[in-house]
Write a structure and sequence with these properties.
Layout: H1 2-22, E1 43-52, H2 55-64, H3 73-76, H4 80-85, E2 88-93, H5 114-122, E3 126-128, H6 138-152, E4 155-157, H7 163-167, E5 170-174, E6 177-185, H8 206-218, E7 223-229, H9 240-251, E8 253-254, E9 257-258, E10 262-266, E11 274-277, E12 280-283, E13 288-291, E14 307-316, E15 326-338, E16 343-346, H10 347-352, H11 358-368, E17 379-380
Parallel strand pairs: 1-2, 1-13, 2-3, 3-4, 6-7, 7-10, 10-12, 15-17
Antiparallel strand pairs: 1-14, 5-6, 8-9, 11-12, 14-15, 15-16
Protein name: Capsule synthesis protein CapA domain-containing protein
Signal peptide: 1-20
Domain Capsule synthesis protein CapA: 44-293
Amino acid sequence: MIARSRQVALVLTAVLAAGAACQAHEHESPGRPAPSADGARGFTLVASGDVLPHTSIIDRARFDAGGTGYDFRPMLAGVRPVVSRADLALCHMETVYGADGNYTGYPAFKSPPEVAAGLAATGYDGCSTASNHSLDDGAAGILRTLDALDRAGVRHAGSARTEAEARAVTVLRAGAAQVAHLAYTYDTNGYPLPPGQPWAVNLIDGNRILADARAARQAGADVVVVSLHWGTEWQDAPDERQLTLARELTAARTGDRPDVDLILGTHAHVPQAYEKVNGTWVVYGMGDQIAGAMNNHQGAQDPRGNQSTLGRFTFTPPAKPGGRWAVTKAEFVPQLFDVDAGRVVNLNQVIAQGADLGAVRDRIRDVVLSRGAAQDGLVMGK
């Protein structure tokens, strides 16, 4: 690990400098879809995995802030060019925020609220917030987290401060499209929902997800994206519950359109496959984008816990009103969180600069493509 980090350190400066140089033109990406015949333009959506600040991550953010406060921007700078160029970028905020220096890592997380500012500076527009750690500090943790995301201008879905907020649909603009973002978790680690607040965290229920998706569509959403915190930790392959729910959600249709247009999975700590199911892309698990050194169920440090992907999907407007916004290009970008350098690394960028990380990238690629996604057009992007 140390030897690898030294290799990464040699190229990080060049990569980040290149990212900084492109920031002035980041909204002029030639890869964006062209307008349709009626003038509507398509859009690109980028999504990434779990932000899970262990104590070592909190310490690193304090170091990057010069010992005063916490700065998560340097940690994420390596993927800023990819994230900020998207029309819509979604993250997964797995933990809740603490206050007044009372910040903790595993097992009950309370992260510095400065995480939100770091996500916003990287270019994220919204985050899913439903996870098994959503109730690590009860209703107060949810309140602090959503307040901080609001201050940073990052939208959120999956947990709520009020019943009215829980009933509202998070809708984000992406090009000419209105995109609804729904989010749910399999559990809250045994923590009960707060008294009188059964709506505080969205729990996975297939019927409820489809009802919410249909309501979002009826309210005007062109695209419905569902984030699911699910799966079996440390398992590269999706489990049976993931497979069953993915089939159920993607099979549901209203009229000529599916009820769900994209599924984004988190929780397993490791990258999992992408698959087109019933004509809809499913990312079973993106892996941890930010996390400290991870130990698996056998108690051994497992480098897979710091590997992940960014998903990038290009949506094209329908030929006629009321049709489906179709994904016409599907990509994944392999990532690594270098625990020694304390940085998220776009593996394709650093490999292009000479870092010897090809085996890590290739392992991620093999897992991502393990269910035949290449035959449906999924490619590895930069």
